[in-house]
UniProtKB/TrEMBL annotation:
Native organism: Auraticoccus monumenti
Xref: Gene3D superfamilies: Jann2411-like domain (1.10.3300.10)
Upper taxonomic lineage: Bacteria, Bacillati, Actinomycetota, Actinomycetes, Propionibacteriales
Highest taxon of the lineage: Bacteria
Any Pfam family: zf-CGNR
Protein's name according to its UniProt entry: CGNR zinc finger domain-containing protein
């Protein structure tokens, strides 16, 4: 089995981008066998991992897109406990969670870190017809599109067409 070996930030983007709009219809790449294969590739093992990851993804998409934080992740988070460990390096904390929650928790923890350390850099593509997300790593924090080659060029062409039509 091939497992996912990217960075945690890439995991966040991959998970958020599992609901692409194709030919005007939003698809869910975490559903069915396709979703099970993606979860296995990211290190998950079963339906519980997939279900928890879908719940976490849907909640984060709602927060990123609408700013609303009234999401329900209690079923996932209520089973998670942090346990202290005292060692030679002092006190450390270990996350105790059901195995099926670990992938979703890694996704949520990385998303939280990204939004705390880099506020405003994780956002939805500016193309209204696109449902993908991007992480803006530019110095100016000015990136608008998930991909310049698809959405960026398309949006620039539309804007040019509108300006040309307005000029007559």
């Amino acid at each position: 089995m091939e497992t996912w070996d990217g960075t945690p930030e890439e995991l966040v983007l991959e998970v958020l981008n599992t609901t692409p709009t194709v030919d005007g219809t939003q698809r869910d790449l975490l559903s069915g066998e396709e979703g099970a294969a993606l979860v296995r590739r990211w290190g998950g093992t079963g339906e519980g991992d997939r279900r928890n990851l879908v719940a976490a993804r849907d909640a984060v998409q709602q927060i990123v897109t609408t700013g609303r934080t009234d999401v329900d992740l209690h079923a996932l988070l209520d089973e998670v406990v942090q346990r202290p460990r005292l060692g030679t390096d002092g006190l450390t904390w270990r996350l105790d969670a059901p195995p099926a929650a670990v992938l979703a928790l890694e996704f949520l923890a990385t998303w939280t870190r990204l939004t705390t350390e880099h506020p405003g850099r994780l956002r939805r593509c500016a193309n209204d017809e696109c449902s993908r997300y991007l992480l803006d790593r530019s110095n100016a924090n000015a990136r608008q599109w998930c991909s310049m080659s698809s959405c960026g060029n398309r949006m620039k062409a539309r804007r040019h067409h509108r300006r040309s039509a307005a000029r007559g």
